[in-house]
């Protein structure tokens, strides 16, 4: 039997699991509940994954881990917590000093998500307790209500004896922590940090508005009823009662937590609970809190409401409709916002209105097939209207209809962000599809890089736009981790893949041939797509490569497809060599990738999309060190490249002349890269998005991605073996 069972529910992050596996004290089992990363289980036999359906929630996941645990003591972590170095050794040493206890409380750090000093809120509370193990009656202020369940050590046989488990629903820590303390006979504390808890930018989701706050009364009633059954002394029941009702009154007084129609009912039920369980000798606190106690005991909701009305009015005054440009436009938009939301209207936008493209276009097309009752409007700038496919309903950005559909649409889909003046209406659904896997730093993580931060502008305004998201799309686990750090908010992460990449698995040889004809690729030539990314430290387009010299070095069997970053649509010189085909202006980057037999890239996110085709990739990294220092990167790209790496034009030409671009070693590098970054792309991403977001199907009914080994990418026009032989 291991000394400790560490239970981590709800899709734990890799960093959480690694913080446990790196502990110097090794007598433990690690129980991730949900989908544990396979790599952890392979490399360490102490990892024992346990499954729990998403519908069971955090409480169900914790209880599933509790049932599977075999350790003498149980320690719960949240999915974004980390175990402090040496934590398990410190816990074991403390138990050696105190002997067996029912509960061992420890300090924890609350770490701000971005900047600020960590806080240790438990330190002051634990400092007032006895040095050795003690009876709860010796420290009645230690009720378990003010301490989280994660980071506290519980004796497994104690929990089993009293059949203690996490209550279903919300505020489960209050119920579990209170019950454990009520039943405990021998407890101890550890005055050092065991867990580091990452604070989300918007705080605990349970503190958001909604009817779920009534469950706080359920938890309080559960704990108080149990205390009454056990005949808890007044010395212990008084602090327990006071701490529970401090939380209840905080919720009752908050201007937005409870829906307006439920506030009076919440207050009245809380008053009945207060009167039924108030200990005989209970002394109300002083000040404003004491006044609230008296009003609650009397059931005086009107007076209680009046006490806090000034605060509610001040909060309401701070909420203003953002301003659109122009007085008439603002008035028109405000009028539209007063009309009801159209439940069958969806609005799409890609690349700030640059046209019908990327993930929004792919979702738009699939919605027409699976959700034909939903009317769709694509937003574009005036100069892109002519490029829209026939039959696509659209609105020009800035027009009256633009503001009208933005105000009334139920669904809003964008691969970037809608402008700051757009209001997130209650009942509307915002989906951020993103437009690439983030090799470079994104969002608030750009703050550490001055050149990028200056171009980004206000991070507060950026986060205000992110707050509107209900869903955010991810194409691989790296993206998931980066989006959570870069755009912290309360959205649901959809690990469904990128809909724009579906075509890489659905296109046929005829489709590839058609696209090559449209682009002017000569039949039988090997087409190399060169797609350099944007450099924040450069003032204009720089191809960074003499493509004419490259064509001379490669010979007439090759042509180069040049696709500059969309920032430089009109800022580059047109190639003069017939072996260089400029495809920057082609609407679909997916078409261009299908046409290419191989990719030459630097650090562009197109490499992650192109890898789905399982065709050769060569990295041309002439300025990696500069790019990494000025832009910031999310992982060591050159340490795990998708193919051969060249640092100079001569090295690049040599990679092709030698055949290394398409040899067995290149294929092995590409296979490892695809396994890591093509996890969710399988040709059905758009379907998953439409079903989850537009049709509202529950997450558990959405089928996962087809395993990589069972997918068949679209065929290349020139087989790799033939092209490599010629080179």
Summarize the structure.
The protein has 28 helices and 20 strands. With 727 residues, the chain is α/β, with parallel strands linked by helices.
Structure characteristics:
alpha/beta, 39% helix, 13% strand, 727 residues, 7-stranded parallel β-sheet, 28 helices
Give a verbal description of the structure.
This protein is of the alpha/beta class. 39% of the residues lie in helices and 13% in strands. The protein is built from 28 helices and 20 strands. Helix 13 packs parallel to helix 15 and helix 14 packs across helix 27 (685-694). The protein starts with a strand and ends with a helix. The relative contact order is 0.07.
Number of helices: 28
Distance between the termini: 61 Å
Give me the secondary-structure category. alpha/beta
Which stretches of 5+ consecutive residues score pLDDT under 50?
A: 36-42, 310-322, 567-572
Numbering strands along the chain, what is their spatial order in the largest sheet?
Answer: 2-1-3-6-5-7-4
Helicity, as a percent range: 25-40%
Quaternary state reads: single chain
What global shape is seen? globular
Beta-strand level of the residues, as a percent range?
Answer: 5-15%
Q: pLDDT average, as an integer?
A: 88
Radius of gyration: 30 Å
